[in-house]
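[Discussion] Sanity-checking designs against the backbone

I'm trying to build intuition for which residues belong where. Below is a structure token string of 227 positions. I'd appreciate it if someone posts a full sequence so I can compare it with mine line by line.
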């Protein structure tokens, strides 16, 4: 009698083998993706130690917005990766520009804006991060088309990039830097609302405001006290 249990030497069911192999391959890809994201995130931390808490906050907020939108797991994963790696291109910027304490010159601003393209160039080479690379490329686009690098407008901007844009800007406004004091949460949120429809997707701002109203006060205190 044929035995379908491969552990007992019988002939294996081809369809069962295919499922097992597919699941094993899927897990390997997922593990590779996680390892790549963690390694790149650590590399970015070596360039700028301030990025650690920044990306942790961004990731949590972006995922919560994505969950409110009811996004599927694969899109949430891309958003998580993009939140962690949106600034990875800054490793290609000279320290004198990245850490300049004062206002950037026009040439320095143009160079700083290259970081999203640098990030895309890095991430698109990693097969499991191709979708993430597009979110990183476009996270400085503006809803009215005035952003960079592509001047994309409205729904042409990938949804994940629109989410990262909102939470990134909010955290940047809260955070204290060597050249400026962080804003109070209420003022940062007021500026987000003011820029809804121009710089930011109004729907994303609306959803993020729900999160802010519920439990961001404690986090904002940590952000404004960070150097």
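Best answer:
Here's mine. Compare freely.
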């Amino acid at each position: 009698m044929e035995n379908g249990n491969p552990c007992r030497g019988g002939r294996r069911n081809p369809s069962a083998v295919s499922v097992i192999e597919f699941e094993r391959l899927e897990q390997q890809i997922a593990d590779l993706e996680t390892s790549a994201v963690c390694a790149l995130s650590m590399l970015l931390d070596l360039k700028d130690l301030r990025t650690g808490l920044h990306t942790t906050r961004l990731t949590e907020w972006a995922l919560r917005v994505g969950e409110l939108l009811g996004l599927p797991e694969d899109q949430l994963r891309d958003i998580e990766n993009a939140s962690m790696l949106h600034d990875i291109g800054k490793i290609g910027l000279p320290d004198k520009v990245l850490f300049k304490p004062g206002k950037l010159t026009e040439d320095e601003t143009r160079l700083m804006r290259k970081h999203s393209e640098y990030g895309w160039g890095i991430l698109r080479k990693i097969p499991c991060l191709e979708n993430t690379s597009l979110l990183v490329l476009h996270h400085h686009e503006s809803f009215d088309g005035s952003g960079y690098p592509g001047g994309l407008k409205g729904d042409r901007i990938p949804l994940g990039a629109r989410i990262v844009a909102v939470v990134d800007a909010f955290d940047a406004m809260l955070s204290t830097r060597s050249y400026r004091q962080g804003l109070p949460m209420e003022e940062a949120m007021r500026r987000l609302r003011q820029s809804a429809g121009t710089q930011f997707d109004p729907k994303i701002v609306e959803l993020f405001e729900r999160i802010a109203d519920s439990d961001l006060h404690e986090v904002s205190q940590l952000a404004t006290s960070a150097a």
